[in-house]
Amino acid sequence: MNSADVVAVDMRFIDPAVNGDVKTQTQGEKDGHGWTADPRKLARAQRVILVESSINALSIDTCDMPGTAAVSIRGIGNAENIDFSFLIGKQVVICMDNDAPFPEGHHRAGLRAIDRAMIHTIAHAKRSEQQVVRTRQGEKPRGKTVSAGTVNRVVGVLNAVLNAGVEWEWIDRAPVVKRAKVPAKRIRWLTPTEAAVLQQHLADMAQFSLETGLRRSNVTGLQWSQVDLVRRLAWIHPDQAKARRAIAVPLSDPAVAVLRRQVAKKRKPEYTASVFVYHGKPMYQTATRAWHDACEKVGIRDFRWHDLRHTWASWHVQRGTPMQVIKELGGWETLEMVQRYAYLSADHLGQWVQSMTEMPAKPQLVAV
Question: Which residue from 71, 119, 173, 355 has the fewest beta carbons nearer than 10 Å?
Fold first, then answer.
């Protein structure tokens, strides 16, 4: 084990006989109750370390790690009876003892695997979590809980871990859990006229997003080493792409013009590699007051920065760009992700449509 991973050490001997066959215990009702050294510290903690025994929790708390508290579940067999809702909104680290499991039927036999009910409990706890937005003053609640899509992603990660456990023969089976249905959202995009008006009030970064369809993080994090103005090409490295595959980005005339305007901007010495800067520093926040003011000024509502990418894809579809080409340009992993824009191109269906209300013309007899 890497010594940097060690937080605290239980100083008891491994052999119970050396300890006088005396087991450290905590007093009070055990069933359904955990143990912590300082409940107030636990309430304030951003990170909670779950352990089995109270002596382990006490050992961790004596390390006095900022923003961290330890909780003992007082044995694996007690885990099913504890209400873990106090962990909502906190980072949780689980550190259980590496002991051989008790045999089936033993009065301290614990959980042999995570069952479907436990996954539903985890999903319910996640669904109750409040959404927050990060500001310069810290995290602020948005007044609503996380979406069903967020819950599905958490459950998906859990299912992936359990399925890997089955493949590696760590557990016998993984429970099958249906994911919550996520209603399909409409795609918000701008018409060319709306975009032309909006660009009069926005910075170059927004125009570059409309020209390339790149995600926000790929635009704000763009480096000059990823740009070749002579070949009119930019590229996104695999570790920067959502699909973890490199993206080649051909640059249009307006995109090249935007980049050329960035060359002359002053940068602080440590940020000379960044393409888009503001007051000499890279810009990471795009949903700014200027963004909202610009949208409001031109009468555009319900429009997020990411909708610039939707607009780019929608325009391509309406101009007849093949779906496979859009997939490659946008860096999507599957063609299915691009199909959501397909309804914007219905030219191939026009030949099959005729009026359903007009009566067909009567055949006319022509004398020969």
Answer: 355
